[in-house]
Every structure is written in C-alpha cells, then in structure tokens.
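Subject: for your reference before the review

Hello V.,

The reviewers asked for a structural picture of the protein, and I figured it would be easier to keep everything in one thread rather than splitting it across files. Below is the amino acid sequence we used in the manuscript, unchanged from the supplementary table.
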Amino acid sequence: MNMEAININDFNNHRIKEDTVIQRILGGEKELYEILVRRNNQKIYRVIRGYLKEESEIEDVMQNSYIKAYTNLHQFNLQSQFSTWLIRIAINESLAELKKKGKTLHLNSQSSDDDFILKLPDHKQLNPQEKMAQKEAKQLLENAIDQLELKYRTVYIMKEVEEMSLKEIASILGISLANTKIRLHRAKDMLKEILYNLSNTKDIFEFGFNRCDRITKIIMKKIS
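And here is what came back from the structure prediction:
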C-alpha cells in the first residue's frame, strides 16, 4: 500500500480519493478520518436537520453517526459513496432520537413535477441592504421548511439544499424513485402555500403601539 504523507488540508478540493483515505484509515491511520468528517459535515448536518430541530440534539446525532461509521468502517462497501452510507447511519440515529421523544415517522404520498420555491441570490458582491434581504429570505425559507411534514422535509433538504440525486435519495430512504418524486413535488407545493400565507398575512410589518405613539407625537410637535 502507498504510505505517502497525506495533507489533511487537501480535503476541501477532494484531491485525495475517498477509497484511498478509507483504506489507510483501516490500515491504522485513524487521524485521516478527519478528512471524511470535514468533507461530510455540511451534508450530514442538513440531513439530520430535516429530522431534528434542537441544535444540541443535532450535534449529538452527528457525533454518534460519525463514531458508529468509524467503528463499523470495515463493513463499508468501497463500491458506493461513503456519504451515502453515512447518511443512512445518520437517519437511523435521527429516527432513534425521535423514537426516544415518542415521535414516529409516517410514510406515503402522491403526484410529481419540478418548480423552484424561492431562489436566493448569489452571495457575490451584495451591498449591506441586499445582504440583509438575503438573510431574511433565508430565514423565511428555513422557517417554512421547518413546517413541512418530516417525510417531505427530508426529501426536500436532500434534493434542493444538498443537491443529491433522486435515485440516491430513494436508495437512502428505502422508497421507490416514483415515491421520492412525489414527496419532492408535495414538499414544493406545501412550501409555496406556507410562503404565500407568510407573505399574505396582515400581521407582518406591524406599526405597534409604542412606535405609533412616538411617531404621532413627533408629527404633532412639528405641525404645532
């Protein structure tokens, strides 16, 4: 086996092949597991976030998933992606956490199609006002996603946020490709409705009592 030194800082641009890293970890270089963790942190966080909302619980599940994956790394099939295997572990850990809290996952649905819900602009050269608008739009979308039923939320996050293929999502969740498409379509339909209701409410941008009193006094003072 080629035992040349690996620079962990190379993980970001994926210069090091995944199977090489895994084989060397299994060969005793456990410090190289950091490469796999860093490569998958964002994806795993988002997938688990589809199941759990408490940040402390999400971090616990992330840690448990990575530890379980490391402990059972010898069982990993190098023919598939490590992230796919890790996500399955993370989902099982998330479901176990939900079960502890007395919550269950219900599966089922109907219909299909494609459509964007809310497109956030590129971060590029945004001015402060645009950055604030982007932040608020992001928060709005996250809050809307949180309102989706679990089975729709997870599919939406995997496909639209993490840009995983429908085939991979179907494989991970153990459902048909058709059912995956149906859930994605339903998730988008529900998101549109949630976002519409949020934007259509008369409760937003309220001019509350204190502000009303203050501005009234200022105006009356100016005209007297």
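For the response letter, the relevant points are probably these. Residues 108-224 form a domain with the Arc Repressor Mutant, subunit A fold (CATH 1.10.10.10). The chain has two domains: 8-100, 108-224.

Happy to draft the paragraph if you're swamped.

O.
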